[in-house]
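Appendix B, Record 12. Input sequence as logged:
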Amino acid sequence: MLIHGWLDHRGSFDALGPLLPGRSVAYDQRGHGDSSWAGAGAFYHFVDYVADLDGLIGALQISGPVRLVGHSMGGAVALFYAAVRPERVAHVTLLDGAPLAIHAREVPDRFTGWLDDLGMDRRRRTVASAEEARSRLLRNNPGLSPGALAVLADPIGPDMEQGFALAWKWDPLLRARSPLPVTEDVTQELLGRVRAPVLLLRARNGILPDERALRDRFARVAKLDIETIEDAGHHLHLDRPDAVAARIREGWGGLQ
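Logged structural output:
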């Protein structure tokens, strides 16, 4: 199961998926890509993504445990799913991803921010062209490779409500602050329940701290391997799909 990151889409695995053995399933998480948006009055709570993964695995009627590969936010989804459904997970790969380290003292301000954000404009954010979309992505992440830019600028399409303008497909409500985040103490309890082996692939130019800090935070994971992928940014599976796939295959122990 290939689980994309925040504001990305399933196409971000087009380069990596074919390099992995067996059957790979990539999907658009709710509010992203071609998936439906949350209805009026609803919200994107992180636990909903975990529930969606559980429902999808059930709908696919997969007979045995699955291998999860999650990028960024998708890595946190995979990790928490492995904690609450340990019997259904054979292996977890985190691609420059880890749960947010949120402490209880941050929750009151997030609660206030959530109330403010609920009134945000949910009209699609338009762009004049795919080139403008790439330029906007580069402003926020100047380290994106040309290949990554081409893929990540893809989730735009004609917006019928705004005169056929090009617009991002993701729901603007995804940017709202959560009033009920998974705090660090809860994260640590969940990490202690992960039974599957965990491979954390850290991008040299990504967003994660160094390996020592990661090992300290993931100390409760029983089977953990961490490796840094050189010459790669946060979207390491787009920058270096061959190297990432080789390391995943090694982690899977040659499974076909």
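The two ends are 15 Å apart (CA to CA).
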